[in-house]
Design brief:
The complex is a heterodimer of chains A (352) and B (259). Chain A is an all-alpha fold. Helix content of chain A is 75%, strand content 1%. Chain A contains 15 helices and two strands. Chain A is globular. By secondary structure, chain B is an alpha/beta fold. Chain B contains nine helices and 14 strands. A six-stranded mixed β-sheet of chain B has the order 6-9-10-3-11-12, with helices on both faces. In chain B, strands 2-1-4-5 form a four-stranded antiparallel β-sheet, with helices on one face. A two-stranded antiparallel sheet of chain B has the order 7-8. The relative contact order of chain B is 0.17. Classes of the chains: A mainly alpha (352), B alpha/beta (259). Chains A and B meet through α10 and α11 of A and α2, β6 and α3 of B.
């Protein structure tokens, strides 16, 4: 199912544009579905009325504009950011197992986010005021960046990336970040503890336009930068030396890829906590469907990531309604088996 | 023109290359020979900027130490020894990468032509990693050919840098690849190749450069360079030299022992 036979895979490979169109349709469908489902009983008819007329009650307007729309917007950018971040890390490490969650980048970003939540008050007033709502995403971006640099330093000796080292370094970095996060909870006061708990659940619940605006700049930077790195990442699949011989400024490519992946992951983690495996599953599915060309992979991964996360969010708030399942549980439920599957195919350890 | 002036490379404490000065001209095939560890690969790596080196290297007048990768890519393509490819890129994808790195991004028909020169037509959609060692080598050669598809461009001659281009090829494909290199030079391009097969080198090279312990110990036409004394010094064994019916020196390793 996940592993098509080569002949079948060849037959079902869609041209990039067809795939992009199909994915756009999926994003729109998922968005409409998400906007019209929920506890408030606001359906499709109400939505159409609300957008093209004035048939909405004030209560419905609040539900639509202040609850569902920001949640949808946040879900779309978080999903896109996580998927693109996965594509970038995988291209950089030349390996399909490099997911921001698995290799510890999310944990590093999370630790920095926790630092910012708990110790933000210690910052000079001017700095804290300037950053405002951006404080946590910016801190998380920086945390992700430092973690990615460390990871790259550990896993890539000379010009060769060791997959086992990459995964082990990810475990170590995650453990360290987890422990440090644990220590921070003892330093937090009651209000901060509540913030931490909500944040750590990995959820889009509590999405607001403020959160969306806080995360958007970093994610936009990554999503705008990523397509420009696509040709370089293709060449990098042949190794650093060959990429350089094909005109790629390899050092610059690596710097920008690390920066973009960290910014996207950091912003996503800052506003939605630990949502794993989107960055692993989305590129994996797309490589089977359309091949590994990063020029198509980057935009299509953004679309599929956005659609999948919105659908996962929809499921998370409907399957156990009126309660809500943390979305991270759902993505892990589907993502972890894919990860295991990829591990079991020995081939992927060499870059399948 | 490729100019190498007083090139020295140290790897750790070892001086791998010492004071190498040589010039390769467009329109010629220059073969670099020498025993294992004589510094052949290091010389090529230095020319390609893969190892730090003292001295000056200029390609068509560009100092390769300071030129941007984007400036050099349309001027010279590189055939590496087997290099691992990540992800399931098809042979066609790989060749297109080379073409788009050069001046031929707007000419997709070059891919098929380049594949035809190495005899891999019909394999375009194969996963590159599923090809045999020899096929991968020819696939990489097609990529290099596509990058410098026309031997002469607006910025002077283009160059093929080949690291043991026939290492994993059968006899027929060895000749095919050497003819490709010869044809590229005859059309005005430059070829620099590291070779172990002295007979093939003698047949196809205009000039041969012998490296012995990191020093250039002989540079010139095959007839001038392939002398018994040089070969004995280079390879540490006695070699009987003959002349091939087609002209040029020709040898069989015989009665090997200390020189």
């Amino acid at each position: 199912m996940l592993q098509l036979s080569p002949a079948l895979a060849e037959r079902v490979r869609l041209p990039g544009l067809t795939m992009t169109a199909a994915l756009m349709t999926l994003v729109i469908a998922a968005s409409v579905l998400s906007l019209t489902s929920g506890a408030a009983g606001l359906g499709l008819g109400d939505l159409v009325g609300g957008l093209f007329g004035d048939g909405l009650t004030p209560r419905d307007k609040v539900v639509l504009y202040d609850i569902r729309l920001p949640r949808l917007a946040l879900g779309l950018v978080v999903g896109a950011a996580l998927a693109v971040s996965g594509v970038l890390l995988q291209g950089l490490f030349r390996n399909p197992l490099a997911d921001p969650g698995i290799v510890g980048v999310s944990a590093g970003a999370g630790l920095a986010a926790v630092f910012a939540i708990v110790l933000g008050g210690l910052l000079p007033l001017g700095l804290a005021a300037t950053l405002g709502a951006w404080l946590v995403p910016v801190a998380a971006g920086l945390g992700g960046w430092v973690t990615t640099l460390l990871l790259y330093r550990i896993a890539t000796a000379g010009r060769h990336t060791d997959v086992a080292m990459m995964l082990l370094a990810g475990i170590a970095l995650s453990a360290l970040a987890g422990a440090a996060t644990g220590v921070m909870t003892y330093l937090a006061d009651d209000r901060q503890l509540r913030d931490l708990t909500f944040w750590g659940m990995g959820s889009l619940a509590g999405a607001t336009w403020t959160k969306f605006a806080a995360a958007l700049p970093l994610m936009a930077m990554a999503l705008i930068l990523a397509p420009r790195l696509a040709r370089g990442l293709n060449a990098l699949a042949l190794g650093e030396a060959q990429a350089a011989h094909m005109g790629v400024d390899v050092q610059r490519l690596k710097r920008l890829a690390i920066l973009s992946a960290a910014a996207a992951t950091g912003a996503a983690v800052a506003v939605s906590g630990g949502i794993g495996f989107i960055g692993l599953v989305v590129p994996h599915l797309l490589r089977h469907a359309q091949g590994p060309d990063h020029r198509r992979l980057v935009p299509n991964a953004a679309l599929l990531g956005a659609a999948l996360l919105v659908l996962a969010d929809l499921a998370s708030r409907t399957v156990v309604a009126p309660a809500e399942l943390p979305i991270g549980i759902l993505t892990a439920l589907f993502g972890a088996p894919v990860f295991l599957w990829m591990l079991m195919r020995n081939k992927t350890l060499r870059g399948g | 023109m490729l100019e190498i002036v007083d090139l020295s490379v140290r790897l750790g404490r070892r001086a791998v290359l010492q004071g190498v000065t040589l010039t390769a001209r467009a329109g010629e095939v220059l073969v670099i020979c020498g025993a294992n560890g004589a510094g052949k690969s290091t010389l090529l790596k230095a020319v390609l900027g893969e190892v730090p080196a003292d001295g000056v290297i200029r390609l068509n007048g560009h100092d390769t130490a300071t030129a941007r990768p984007g400036t050099l890519a349309p001027l010279r393509a590189v055939l590496p020894q087997d290099t691992e490819v990540a992800f399931a890129f098809s042979l066609a994808d790989i060749v297109a990468m080379g073409r788009e790195a050069g001046d031929f991004a707007a000419r997709p028909e070059v891919d098929a032509l380049a594949l035809a020169t190495v005899g891999l037509v019909g394999r375009e959609h194969d996963d590159f990693r599923s090809l045999s060692g020899g096929e991968r080598q020819r696939g990489h050669l097609a990529r290099a050919m596509a990058q410098v598809w026309e031997p002469v461009g607006p910025n002077g001659p283009r160059w093929l840098m080949l690291d043991e281009p026939v290492a994993s090829l059968d006899l027929g494909h060895q000749l095919q690849v050497m003819r490709l290199a010869r044809g590229f030079a005859d059309a005005g391009g430059g070829v620099v190749a590291i070779m172990h097969d002295l007979n093939l080198s003698s047949m196809f090279a205009d000039k041969m450069a012998f490296l012995i312990d990191g020093r250039l110990e002989g540079m010139g036409s095959p007839a001038n360079v392939m002398q018994g004394a040089t070969l004995e010094k280079a390879y540490g064994c006695q070699i009987a030299l003959n002349t091939a019916p087609m002209a040029g020196p020709w040898l069989l390793p015989q009665v090997c022992g200390p020189a």
